[in-house]
Write a structure and sequence with these properties.
This protein is α/β, with parallel strands linked by helices and about 400 residues long. The chain is about 35% helix and about 20% strand.
Length: about 400
Amino acid sequence: MDVTTRLTWIQEQILGKLLGNTSLTLLYKSRVHQLRTLDMKNNSTGMSTLLLNTQVEVNGTLLKFSSLDGLSLSVDPREYKLHLNDALIKELKLNVKPVSGYLECEIFRVDGVKNDPGFIKKMLTVRQYRERLLSALRAYRPKKDLVSEVRILLVGPVGSGKSSFFNSVKSAFQGHLTRQAIVGSDETSITKQYRIYSVKDGEGGKTLPFMLCDSMGLDEREEAGLCIDDISHILKGCVPDRYQFNPCKPIKPKHPTSVTLPPLKDRIHCVAYVLNINSVNTLSAKMVAKLKEVHKDAGACGVGQVALLTNVNNCDEVLDDSFLNMTENMTSQSQVKNVQNMLNIPIANILMVSNYASERSLEPMKDVLILAALRQMLRAADDSLEDLPPEETASANGSFNS
């Protein structure tokens, strides 16, 4: 019988990528090797399992894995049974019985992490950190309950990843990849309408207390892309969902679809400048001027501001051991400094992400960057709400006084 894995090629590639772009070598297949677990363990698995803080024990024909924090799993190849303790079932959120049958037991050698044992430890921890971020965001409530939902405006050049960021945020909360917002790579903006997107916690879950507002892309050409004169109307909450942008005809105060005297809840509470990290150092003078104009309008409205650098190639380089969004020795320091000088945004509010594009499944490292960026946006929004003058906070439904 051929010793080949039951995994499909795609499943094997995904598993290797989750472990840090490693390669997998099949060592043991229960229907081929049957009860020879002891030989398999002695030959290859002892050293690698130490990296996972996992102890391996062979008791007769039973292969036992146990961790220092009380998680345990036993494989019985004679009976084709898995024995899982309650702690492991809870940790993995499994809907299985403590003793469950399986079709096949396969054990692989993981190649590619020998020179960096710290990386696989980080991969194990990053999943736990992802869950903590999700829990914190699920528990989030806007500052002082002034509004029921915070609104975050995504603005930036055409093709910088605004719509993709919303899709990535939604995917992280849904638990699978989703493509609600249309994305593309055309020279002109794919997004033609102003969209106000809500995010639900899982399929059919509750609506979370924040919205992502997707705008038409900025274009350095005249009469193309989002009209800068429209920005102030968006910030003040005068633009309704699905408003059709027209670069040649900016919004007028008496536009038939314009909202007059919008309440505080309809205003923008944070602006996120979405910029491609690979082109941020080569932005044209006209594009920089438009971004600075947006920054000026946002500052006049007292709106929180952050920058989001997309298309990060190496997520591991960005995250340090404490899972902060940037490390001091990363290779993208020039882009960060450029954005800081261009938009006068604090380093702590310059975030880096890698949006989901052609992936087939979620990646914990990407999720951590995406969720950490969202958390910082909400903090910036809270700062702006806390800084509102008394006349604006006297009523949660207070209108904007221009």
